[in-house]
Amino acid sequence: MSQLDPFLAAGLFIILAPVVGVLITGLDRILTARMQGRVGPPVLQPLYDIGKLFQKRQVAVWGAQSFFIFCYLIFIVFTGALFFAGGDILLVIFAFTLGHVFLVLGAYVSYSPYAHIGAERELIQLMAVEPMIIIAAIGLYQVNGSFLVGEMANHPGLPILLLPGVFLGFIFILTFKLRKSPFDLATSHHAHQELVKGSTTEFSGWTLAMVELAHIYELVVMLGFIWLFFGDHLWLCVIAIAAIMFLEILVDNCTSRIKWQDALISAWFVTLVAGAGNIFALSIM
Amino acid sequence: MSYLQKSPWIIHYDASSCNGCDIEVLACLTPLYDVERFGILNTGNPKHADIFVITGGVNEMNKEVVQNIYEQMPNPKVVVAVGICACSGGVFRECYNISGGVATVIPVDVYVPGCAARPESIIDGIVQALEILEEKRQEMKREKREAA
Hints:
The complex is a heterodimer of chains A (285) and B (148). Chain A has 285 residues and is mostly helical.
């Protein structure tokens, strides 16, 4: 990827990420249905959903929520563009977090108690996830000697061999980021939960469409992070992503949502033991 | 088919049903009928919903609730009354606390009779509602164009 012109790579991401993201999400929904003994929707269902939401009328008590959600989408797209252009991974992480802060602000704008609790849980999820993402960046720096994604992607060996703990921790927090059970605290793809739709309860029409689109971009960015653990072994990376997605869907279907206290403590525990332990071992080697 | 028809999201409300029709509505989601094949999802949130599926006759206490849910749904939207009680009040029609079928409170687009309504007829009713939904979208577009 780094042989590509950075601007071209960023442009390719902006155009291709929705295509890849929709296909992965569509396959995810089919696989989920099959695990439950159902047939499931067509592969392009996520596209239909987003298209439908753009056709609906917008209902918003406070117009500001649309602005915040627009910022959320823009920052997630910016994050991905920066990542695939080979930019600084620390900047990527900060832009990623900033995007989520806008999502939280958007949920806080309305007076809906569901959206408020959803926003609070979104913040808890950020707290749970953020240390592990930063540790992943540090681990990748230790292996590559550079914070630039472009240089990490060209690593001739397999960084995962030096970073097994970091990789494990990253897979753990991926469940938060993909909004899958047992860590789908803030909002979930499934109906019938105590928070209705959590942080997205008050969004409708194209505001909700932008949230869905941002989730799809986010998915591709998160899978991009996994790629960094495999250096230039692209095929191995594709197999790993397929295996990880299968595992995530299996866990999603086998577990129920847990309390936020347990989610936070388990995430920090894994971060401390697997992530920080790995970093420490690498630094004394 | 427009995107709207390919991805109808439903909100289900039990006005004062005996739960017979509710069980049949939920049966549509099970592996046997699996309405997600048609992109149909049960949202539980009026702001995300396109189709309002309502079971049971409306009583004097929840009239406002039904109206409130209907008003919170963004246009275009349709209402499907499932079961004979939702259609006309059924055997409870003469009860002192029942104001009648759903149509006494909000405009209904599709009536699905039956006691309890079969999952097949519920799915058929929703598919018919999709046609009306598309008509309403076209109308909405026309109004927007004329206003502009």
